[in-house]
Design goal:
The protein is an alpha+beta fold. The chain has a single domain, classed as 3-Layer(aba) Sandwich (Beta-lactamase). Helices cover 35% and strands 20% of the residues. It has 13 helices and 15 strands. It has an eight-stranded antiparallel beta sheet with strand order 2-1-15-14-13-12-11-10, with helices on both faces. Strands 3-7-4 form a three-stranded antiparallel beta sheet. α2 packs parallel to α7. The longest helix has 15 residues. The chain is globular, with a radius of gyration of 18 Å. The two termini are 16 Å apart. The model has no long low-confidence stretch (mean pLDDT 95).
Length: 301
C-alpha cells in the first residue's frame, strides 16, 4: 500500500480512529513541518472562533469598517465597509477575485505587493456582500488582519497562546507581512498536528477537560453556510468544506482542503480523522486523496 501512496505523490498519511493513531506513514521515513496550503484557512477559522469566545471580537456579524478605518481612503465603494466577518468566513464578501481554479495569479500578485492587507482593501467588489460564493485568499487575509487588530497579536502568536498548547503543537511556522500572518495559506505544521487539529473538531472543540473552541462555533463552522462548489468538493461552512452523504454518496464529512491535495478529513459517524499531505503538482491531483479515502480507507472502518 505504501508504494502506491508514493506513486500517487503522497508524502504523509496520519489516521486516528476512536482517538488512537492507527496510521502514521511518511514517505521520508519521518514527519516534518511542512506547508499545508489552504488547510490554513480552517485553523484561522478556529482562532477567529476562539477570539469571539474570549470577547476579543464582538460578533461574527461585525462589519470590517470597525477594524479598517483607512478604508474610505483606499476604496470608494460604499459597500466594502459593510462586509462582515461572516461574509469573509463563508467566502461571500463579493470581493473581485478569480474563480478557485484560476486564482493562483491573483494570489501571487497579492504576496508580491508591499502590503497584502492594502492590496485586498483596494480591490473592487464584483457582487453585493452576502449574495454569492467566490473562494478567495484575499478575504481570508483580511480575517487574519482583523484578528491581529482585535487582539494585538499575530495569528501565529494567538494560536500559540490559545490553541496550539492543547494540541501539543510546538514548531509551527506561518508566513507574514507587516506583522499579519497570511490568512489564506502559509501555515506549516507536522502532519500529526493536522490530524490532532481535525480530532479537536471531531470532538466538538474539546480536548480532555478543555473546551478549546466552543461547541457552537464548531457546529456552525462545519454546517453548510454557503453554496461552495458542490460539483467539486461540496458546500462551505466557516472556512471548512462540508460534504454530506447526499453529496459524496458515501458518508457525512467535513474537511480542510489545501492546494495540490492537502486534506484534513473529519468523519464523525466513523470517529475518524484522516490527514493527508501530497507533493505539489498538477492541480487535478487534488482529487487523488479523496479517492483514496473513499476507495481504500473508509472500507477498513
Amino acid at each position: 500500500m505504501w508504494a502506491n501512496l508514493t506513486s500517487m505523490g503522497l508524502t504523509d498519511l496520519v489516521i486516528t480512529h476512536h482517538g488512537s493513531v492507527v496510521t502514521d506513514w511518511h514517505s521520508a521515513g519521518k514527519d516534518r513541518v511542512n506547508f499545508i496550503f489552504s488547510c490554513t484557512k480552517s485553523v484561522l477559522s478556529a482562532i477567529i472562533g476562539i477570539a469571539i469566545d474570549r470577547h476579543f471580537i464582538s460578533s461574527i456579524n461585525q462589519p470590517i469598517r470597525d477594524y479598517f478605518p483607512e478604508l474610505p481612503e483606499l476604496n470608494p465603494d460604499p459597500r466594502f465597509p459593510n462586509i462582515t466577518l461572516r461574509h469573509l468566513l463563508t467566502m461571500t464578501s463579493g470581493i473581485d477575485w478569480p474563480p478557485m481554479n484560476r486564482a493562483v495569479g491573483m494570489h501571487r500578485q497579492m504576496v508580491a505587493s508591499d502590503d497584502w492587507v492594502e492590496f485586498v482593501l483596494k480591490k473592487p467588489l464584483a457582487y453585493e456582500p452576502g449574495v454569492r460564493f467566490n473562494y478567495n485568499d484575499g478575504g481570508s487575509h483580511l480575517l487574519s488582519a482583523v484578528l491581529t487588530r482585535a487582539t494585538k497579536m499575530s495569528a501565529l502568536a494567538f494560536s500559540y497562546q490559545y490553541l496550539f498548547p492543547f494540541l501539543h503543537i510546538s514548531k509551527a511556522k506561518w508566513k507574514e507581512n507587516h506583522g499579519v500572518n497570511l490568512g489564506g495559506t502559509g501555515l506549516h505544521l507536522y502532519a500529526m498536528d493536522m490530524a490532532m487539529f481535525g480530532y479537536l473538531y471531531l470532538k466538538g472543540g474539546k480536548i480532555g477537560a478543555d473546551q478549546v473552541v466552543s461547541q457552537e462555533w464548531v457546529q456552525e463552522s462545519t454546517r453548510i453556510q454557503a453554496k461552495g462548489h458542490p460539483e467539486w468538493f461540496g458546500n462551505y461552512g466557516y472556512h471548512w468544506w462540508v460534504s454530506p452523504q447526499e453529496h459524496n454518496r458515501r458518508v457525512d464529512m467535513f474537511f480542510a482542503l489545501g492546494a495540490h491535495g492537502q486534506y484534513i478529513f473529519v468523519i464523525p459517524s466513523k470517529d475518524l480523522v484522516v490527514a493527508v499531505r501530497k507533493k505539489p503538482g498538477k492541480q487535478e491531483g487534488v482529487i487523488l486523496p479523496r479517492d483514496l479515502l473513499f476507495e481504500k480507507i473508509l472500507p477498513c472502518f
